[in-house]
Give the backbone structure.
Amino acid sequence: MEKQTILLVDDDPDYLESNRAVLEAEGFDVHTAETPGQALRLVRKISPAVAILDVIMDEPDSGFKLARQIRGSRKTQNVRIVLLTALNDVNREKGIAYRFSDGDRDERWLPVDRVLNKPVRPARLAAVVHELLGGA
């Protein structure tokens, strides 16, 4: 059986490496990118089964824009997308009631398959990837 390809995108190299190790241990072929530009080039080249995107990278909405670009291309429109955000904790600390959740998914505004709070435990991230790919 061929390994499923995962694209992990975050501007924190330590986060990338720790999660890469976990996902590779789960049997995935993992590629990483530290910028939305790198990620877009990679997603077009490797057509991953799942792309895991941080929200805030070089811009406060980098992950949102990248998700829209991925879903907006015929070649990559079927890539499963997991959006990682620390904004929910930031909002909670500031007393802001708004939180991102799976209920916010929308093909125009937030075209993703799952929204996870960051930091996410590596085992939870792996479980979500397996779930999106039809596994247990």
